[in-house]
Amino acid sequence: MIANRRPRPTSGDRELRLWKVGRALIITFAAAVLVAGGVFYGLVYLLDFQEIDTTTKLDAKTLFDLVKLSFGVVAGAGALVALVVAYRRQRVDEAGAHREATRLHTERFSQAVDKLGSDSPAVRLGGVHALAGLADDAPDANLRQTCIDVLCAYLRLPHTPDPGTAELENHHLYLALREVRHTILRLISDHYRRPEGTHHSWQGCDLDLTGVTIDSHMDFRDARFTRGTVTFNGATFSDATVDFNGATFSSGMVDFGSATFSGGMVDFGFATFSGSTMLFADTTFSEGCSVSFANAEISGGSAYFGGATISDGAVYFGDATISGGTVFFGDATVSGGTVFFERATISDCIVFFGDATISGGTVTFEDATISSDCTVTFRDATISGGTVTFDHATISSNSRVYFMRAAISSDTVSFNRTTISGGTLDFSDTTGPAPAGLLTAVGSPVPTTVTLSQAWAPIP
Question: Strand pairing partners for 213?
């Protein structure tokens, strides 16, 4: 659940901050006198007056000018009073219009929520579209958020699993209610892709999809996560795709903590992570952007970051269980950011950093366990100025770690106190110095499962 959310200011809130009439008039008169005095002395300075010619004689023309000046002052004062009163009347009218719009919105909202509770899937579907329309037309951000919260809450409600075709009537009911849920998921992603500030855009709004079963496509391509919180904490992805391809994450937060991926895919291809926080566990990464799959289970699915740019932030798979899936960072650029696989359990899967560029950032498998037909590959990667560490990791039999044709700069890759027990390591055609601690971890003679660059000599 999204907790401690601060309400957004509304136009109705501003009505409470109106000054009293007396105070407003005093401040307005004072401002007018200051402005008039400033203009007068400015003109005196620009026209280079030396002194005022004084006379004790009061002729008719001077008297008439004084009378005109007096009437002008009175008229100006009256105009200021009228301006202040008109301003207050306009604000009161705006507040009244807002209250009326809010009242009508509340009536429509109640009707739409009633439809969501109907026994008929068709009526529920109408309620979904009604709530989406209300969110689009909401008079302020708080009311829009309320509509979105109800749609997300509907997805979080428990639902009966598919009974199968043996119970045909219940099976059809299940399919109809699933269509209602799929419609909500589609409407959410469609509205979130619209540019912020445009009509029908929900960007910046919070989405609480905690524990939701997502078994249909959600399209967030090219969306901008600039504020707000989107949480998939504890969600189950079953044969579904959540597409963040080309999305920009800055100052927003997306949470996949404790999620389960079973045959589904989360696609972050060509996404840009800079200056935001993406939370996937109970930890908040406040510096830069963080994409975390901490404690998540990726089984038979894929997390795709191909071509992504990760700068000043983190992608976090700490304590995750990756089994039978794929984590893909091919062609990604890690610059100033960090990709964590600390304490992760990685088996029967592929973790792919082929052709990636790691400069100024870190990719760490510290204390990770790589086992059971798992492949971690950095083939053709360029590691310069950044760090790739397998310190204290365990590489077990039937697992593979590949650095073929990788370009390694000095002190950028380390295997300090790594346990290598039967796993395959391939550093053929790798350029640069031997990774720190690697030759000690491999031992002598070099096992047949380990291929080192010809330029490196094992420690005798």
Answer: 236
